[in-house]
Design goal:
318 residues
Amino acid sequence: MAMPVSKEKIYHSPVLLSETLELLKVQAGKIYLDCTLGGGGHAGHILRQSAPSGHLIGIDRDKEALKIARERLALFQDRISLVQDNFINLKEILAHLKITQVDGIFFDLGVSKYQLADEVRGFSFKRDGPLDMRMDKREQVTAALLVNELPLGELTRLIFMYGEERWAARIAQGICQARQKHPLVSTLELAKIVTDAIPLPHRPKSIHPATKTFQAFRIAVNKELESIGSAISAAISSLAPGGRICLISYHSLEDRVVKQTLKVLEKGCLCPPGAPACVCGEKAQVKILTKQPITPSGSEVAKNPSARSARLRAAEKI
């Protein structure tokens, strides 16, 4: 039986913290929006640095994460507004709070340590639990539904597209064969099927063999990539001039969406290359501050191995 992991152990290492605070230019009295609050690790430092009157709005889809963050940020209860929702709805959330503009916006994309550590959530291939993977338990689609009901071809495409897994076809075939015997309901059972499907000489040594497949199902269940680009655009429109946005991603699919969205917003003009004059009327909205993504230092990765794939990008509202 897995031993419980303490909340403090889960949340003590916000990724790329000093770099994020510097790029956000956190100042006293400003308003900040944390679109992926999680356990409140970054939020706590933003609130300390923006004291005594800075305000933070925290959004998260996960009810349990919000509960833990509320406890962790109790000292700042007069300066926080916490909302359970999808960050795609950030403009509506700000309107409901009667806030027209914010001074800084932060996204920490991907799954949280809390979600991975809680076997009941079904995110982990190391802890046995139900095949769930929902960040918001109010949603209907679970990993078990996809694993047991998608046809072979769709399973293969899902694992290949969202997991960038070269052995997607073999893994999908293994899943289909296994579910003919009985429905797949366990995370460890799925992890074993995935591992067995990958030829032994080709199993990755630096990560668990099921890492990419679990990533693929998590992304599909939560429709993660579908909302990132639109949320960034909505976030930029909610920034005050000179305000900044920082985004941390953990795999190439997320980082690609972040990079491309910021480039489009920096370019502004949507006219075809070579057009004699701009007719679209679109103007640049941001200045990108990170031409290359910022990555964790060797010392940070040594202290927090889960930070190894993090990529931080930032931009300033024009």
